[in-house]
């Protein structure tokens, strides 16, 4: 009789001990599930079905399939995903040649890159244009309505967005704006238009956050 009771006790103890071992695993699974669900909710809040663009795709001399002048989610391996509007404009230079000015407008930072080709004389009547060469933006001026903002860059083509500038961009009139960019190694700044599509998208990017 005693051995049978002992055997029953050992079986019950084994089952109970096994349950104790499995409880933390279940709790961990529940925690991971909760975190995963929370992450998905946050991701949906950050990305309201806007197109996703890799950060390096638009910063090239001839970017392909970029949704210009509309809100996008830029995917960056260091900065993560952020809302922005991308803009591109070609500009004939007064001293000959052509420039392509591309920019990214996000809540905290404006990024500007230039690709400049200067024409050289190939003969008496012909001019040859060099290939567009990447140029770093060092100084940025933005004209929105009657306001002008002047921003010194950080040496990488990035410019901080102040609260005052964010308000000006969010409330910009629906007409072309202007930027004037000073590129490293070039004496003359480049004045470039920002089209109405980008200006309208500023209202989305720089809308006052809801708390």
Structure described in brief:
With 211 residues, the protein is α+β, with helices and mostly antiparallel strands.
Question: Can you characterise this structure?
Answer:
The protein is an alpha+beta fold and 211 residues long. It folds into 2 domains: 1-46; 52-205, no CATH class. The protein contains 3 helices and 12 strands, in the order αββββββββββαββα. It has helices at residues 2-46, 163-170, 196-205, and strands spanning 52-54, 71-76, 80-92, 98-106, 109-117, 119-121, 127-129, 133-144, 147-152, 158-160, 177-183, 190-194. The strands form 2 sheets. Strands 1, 2, 3, 4, 5, 8, 9, 10, 11 and 12 form a 10-stranded mixed beta sheet that branches. A two-stranded antiparallel sheet has the order 6-7. Strand 4 (98-106) and strand 5 (109-117) form a beta hairpin. The N and C termini lie far apart (70 Å). The model is unreliable at 8-45 (pLDDT under 50).
The number of E-state strands comes to 12
Termini Cα gap: 70 Å
Work out the oligomeric state of the chains in this entry. Answer: single chain
The SSE order reads HEEEEEEEEEEHEEH
Radius of gyration: 28 Å
Counting H and I runs of at least 4 residues, what is the number of helices?
Answer: 3
Shape: globular
Number of domains: 2
Beta content comes to 35-45%
